């Protein structure tokens, strides 16, 4: 009997995990199934571009996994039962021997009234298209309020302003936008806001979203015909509901091999994993973290099943790349304590670097088993019930 590996989610983390496992494990011994609700791989890091009116390349998952041996099942995950080792889908039930939980995250409303009913966001393809339609419906002088001064908020505000200069875009944020960056990078960010015409309101917390305005904690009211909520991310509650041990964030608590501390046949990667980096802090929800955690998880699974010692990726966070429209960006590196270094890139050079990073990530996702076969390992036990190799 083949060892059944089920990967939930085909984002950056899930797609990499499925492809790497297919490349490294012998097909006579394993059966790999990827479950995803949508038929295409989504470049989440470019969804603000889609919302601003730009077209993105469609990347069908069926084409990406063609010839790899990976089975694609288009369905939505409704529940996970780690005791029975089953996953409930919209079209039935799926059993597993090893589960890779990579369902990612969605927008977090933080309990702010009106966000769900009236705000837009850019955390998935359909949501980005809804925002795109709304922006295109606004006439000259249409007012857009972006709530949140993190990476997503900065990129959304600058992209929308550059692509649709007839709109009036306001950025409202609890603190200073880009406060984590070096002084030089923050100065460049402020100049970019001024150049594009983004009206920035720091130290402003939105407490209610209404159809045509937002209300802030100090009583300030901003008119807004399209409110873009960029207030952070929340993970799917499926893991907690299934009895997996989770952190306060709802993320699955994992050990250094990305293995669930409560259920050893479950691994988590990407935003779904509450993973502690080498600096002793939880890894942030990001594309970079998705790469490192999926590398660590797949290395652990391969080592466990084949009985071989497998070296895994370091869990480090190197920095941020922030687009400021299509021709400007900031690349800010951080040190081992996740503090901004004085060194950073800016302008067109940074934009080219960021675009290269995203293109490279998209290419690797589109070729999940590039170089296949690559020393495809046999399982220690033909039945697929192998356990226990160390991963260092």
From TrEMBL:
Keyword Lyase part of the UniProt annotation: no
Cofactor(s) the protein needs: FAD
Positions of the FAD/NAD(P)-binding domain: 4-285
Entry annotated with the keyword DNA damage: no
Alphabetical list of Pfam families matching this protein: Pyr_redox_2
Family matches, as InterPro entries: FAD/NAD-bd_sf, FAD/NAD-binding_dom, NADH-Q_oxidoreductase
GO terms of molecular function: NAD(P)H dehydrogenase (quinone) activity
GO biological processes: aerobic electron transport chain
Key words of the record: FAD, Flavoprotein, Oxidoreductase
Protein family (similarity comment): Belongs to the NADH dehydrogenase family.
UniProt-recorded name of the protein: NADH dehydrogenase, FAD-containing subunit
Species annotation: Thermostaphylospora chromogena
């Amino acid at each position: 009997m083949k060892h059944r590996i089920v990967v939930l989610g085909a984002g950056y983390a899930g797609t990499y995990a499925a492809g790497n496992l297919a490349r490294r494990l012998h097909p006579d011994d394993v059966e790999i199934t990827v479950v995803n609700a949508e038929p295409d791989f989504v470049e989440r890091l470019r969804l603000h571009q889609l919302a601003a009116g730009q077209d993105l390349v469609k990347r069908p998952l069926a084409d990406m996994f063609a010839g790899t041996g990976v089975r694609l099942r288009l369905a939505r995950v409704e529940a996970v039962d780690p005791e029975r080792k089953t996953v409930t889908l919209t079209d039935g039930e799926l059993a597993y021997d090893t589960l890779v939980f990579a369902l990612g995250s969605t927008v977090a409303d933080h309990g702010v009234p009106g966000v769900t009913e009236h705000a837009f966001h850019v955390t998935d393809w359909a949501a980005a298209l809804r925002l795109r339609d709304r922006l295109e419906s606004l006439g000259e002088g249409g007012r857009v309020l972006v709530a949140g001064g993190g990476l997503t908020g900065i990129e959304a505000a600058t992209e929308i302003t550059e692509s649709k200069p007839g709109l009036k875009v306001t950025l409202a944020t609890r603190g200073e936008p880009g406060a984590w960056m070096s002084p030089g990078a923050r100065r460049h960010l402020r100049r970019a806001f001024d150049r594009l015409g983004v009206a920035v309101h720091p130290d402003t917390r939105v407490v209610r979203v209404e159809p045509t305005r937002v209300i802030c904690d100090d009583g300030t009211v901003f008119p807004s015909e399209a409110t873009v909520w960029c207030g952070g991310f929340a993970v799917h509650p499926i893991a907690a509901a299934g009895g997996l041990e989770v952190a306060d964030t709802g993320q699955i608590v994992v050990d250094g091999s990305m293995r669930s501390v409560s259920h050893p046949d479950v691994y988590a990667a990407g935003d779904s994993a509450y993973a502690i980096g080498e600096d002793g802090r939880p890894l942030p929800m990001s594309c970079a973290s998705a790469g490192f955690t999926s590398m660590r998880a797949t290395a652990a699974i391969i080592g466990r099943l084949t009985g071989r010692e497998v070296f895994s990726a370091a869990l480090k966070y190197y920095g941020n790349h922030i687009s400021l429209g299509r021709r400007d960006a900031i690349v800010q590196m951080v040190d081992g304590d996740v503090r901004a270094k004085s060194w950073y890139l800016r302008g067109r050079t940074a934009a080219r670097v960021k675009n290269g990073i995203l293109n490279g990530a998209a290419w690797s996702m589109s070729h999940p088993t590039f170089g296949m076969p690559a020393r495809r390992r046999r399982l220690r036990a033909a039945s697929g019930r192998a356990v226990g190799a160390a991963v260092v």
